[in-house]
Amino acid sequence: MTPSDKNFLLIKSLEQRDERALKQLYDVYWKKMYLYALKVLNHQQLCEDILQDIFISIWEKAPTAKIKNIESYLFRALKYKIANALRDEKYTQINNEHLNFLPSEDYVKNAIEYKDLETQVHKTIQTLPEKCKNVFYLSRIEEYTNHEIAEELNISVRTVETHISKALKHLRVHISYLLIIAFFFNA
């Protein structure tokens, strides 16, 4: 039996509300999806909640969803949920790990898509006001402390914090938008 035959039978079983099909789906995809979500969000409980929502949703929608490829369907749902979680994040400051939430080349089927997204992030950084861009560069790329940046640029630590906060807010808005677009067009 080919993988596409197995995919077809699994979808048909889900449509007919076969609980064994849901369990099989869960057993095959849960860990892979969880690890992907954890790499992006770095929050175990949130990832578990997202996966629970996805599996409940697929169970409820399977009879009418007209799913063609179960893996694509699951990962598209996961990407959508992750994008929403990132958008809803309410942190006052984001550290380097949160800026590294861009998908790695291991998770992107086409390296060109990854490079395009990376280029868009760099372009977004370039749209920051000059002083803000310099502070952000020293903080996130050169890994200077806020005190070191203040001394280097002859500004107050509070001004450094303000510039970093502005830059992160700008990036959060623009990158979330780019990710949502990328997820919808590449899923």
UniProtKB/TrEMBL annotation:
Keywords for the protein's UniProt record, in alphabetical order: Sigma factor, Transcription, Transcription regulation
GO-annotated molecular function: DNA binding; sigma factor activity
Signal sequence interval, chain numbering: none
CDD domains noted in UniProt: Sigma70_r4
InterPro entries (alphabetical): RNA_pol_sigma-70-like (IPR039425), RNA_pol_sigma-70_dom (IPR014284), RNA_pol_sigma70_bacteroid (IPR014327), RNA_pol_sigma70_r2 (IPR007627), RNA_pol_sigma70_r4_t2 (IPR013249), RNA_pol_sigma_r2 (IPR013325), RNA_pol_sigma_r3/r4-like (IPR013324), WH-like_DNA-bd_sf (IPR036388)
Residue ranges constituting the RNA polymerase sigma factor 70 region 4 type domain according to the UniProt record: 120-171
Residues annotated as domain RNA polymerase sigma-70 region: 27-90
Gene Ontology biological process terms from the UniProt entry: DNA-templated transcription initiation
Domain of life per record: Bacteria
Pfam families named in the record: Sigma70_r2, Sigma70_r4_2
Similarity comment: family membership: Belongs to the sigma-70 factor family. ECF subfamily.
Protein name, per record: RNA polymerase sigma-70 factor, expansion family 1
Organism in which the protein naturally occurs: Galbibacter orientalis DSM 19592
